Amino acid sequence: KRWFKSNEKLLKQSEDIKLGIEDLKMRRNQILEDIEFLKLQKIDLEEEFILVKDRVGEFIESFQYLLDNVGLKTDDMGSQTNLYTIPSMAFEDRITIIDEREYFIEDLAANLGISGIRSDYSFDLAQYIYAIFANRMNLLIVGYNTRKIADAISSVICGRSAEIITLPLGYNNCNELISVVNGLTGKVILIENAVDNISETTYIPLIKQNKDKFLIFSMESSENIGILSNCIFNYMLPLDIDTIIGYELDKPFCYSAVAESIFNTDSELQSKRYNFKDLEKLNKVVELSRTSKLRIAEVMSIIDSLDSDNAIYDVLLFSISMLCKSDDNKYELKNFIE
């Protein structure tokens, strides 16, 4: 009996294997049929591509003929600059030299208040901007009245209005951008329409080679902040201006020139590590690369060195909160703050 049961079991397994083999053969045949169908589709697509390519070629030739007839050459078009620049202006012949960072922050806070930043935020924002520049990073001002705010910063750094560069949509001439910036006389450069309108490969080389300019980028609205590549936050920090803007004051800016030494800082390694651990807790709130967190931790440590307890508050208020677009992110941010 045991032998019969064992034999029956083996026979059943053998039948199952045969059925499995037949099923695999059917699948193989179906796959072969699909491959043949895809090959035919590939041939059709190649023929369509050749037709389209020929049509495009004819169009380009016709367009070139039109340009030649109206007196335009493609070489001439490529050599024209698409940049629009507004040069900086000096406000006063004699300006004071600031060689203490505390004085710089006080004057910057006053200028930010004049430009429309509410008084209860101007000093904290001034500290934050100072720390960003001291960490050799750049600003991304998001919101209304960015030119006025750039002038407020420039007036206290070099006693002049900011140089302004406006880029057209899709601009991609990296070498020209670097050349234009290097040729400007002002120290503070506001670059408009860059971050959300052109590829970061166009302006990041400028950031990397820049040695002596204070670069400020701007966006009119935070609507597109979510589509930006995270890598840009390795080089710049966003400032959410719309949430802290008020009325401009009818007063002149404070004008001065800063000694470069005030931006030379040496924050403690222990402070950086402590701040980095705090930022690691924000993983559920916002996606930032490890490099971005390390750099933000350095900015926070510089604020700590100013005897301020507001480092994490500044980062959350002026930068991180703007990056929290979904309700889930906002909920996690609220939990983190609490």
Labels describing this entry:
338 residues; alpha/beta; 6-stranded mixed beta sheet; two-stranded parallel ribbon; 11 helices; 56% helix
Tell me about this structure:
The model is unreliable at 72-80 (pLDDT under 50). This protein has a six-stranded mixed beta sheet with strand order 1-4-5-6-3-7. Helix 6 (174-183) links the parallel strand 4 (163-166) and strand 5. Helices cover 56% and strands 10% of the residues. The protein is an alpha/beta fold and 338 residues long. It is elongated. It contains eleven helices and eight strands. Helix 4 crosses helix 9 (290-304), helix 8 packs across helix 9 and helix 9 (290-304) packs antiparallel against helix 10 (311-323).
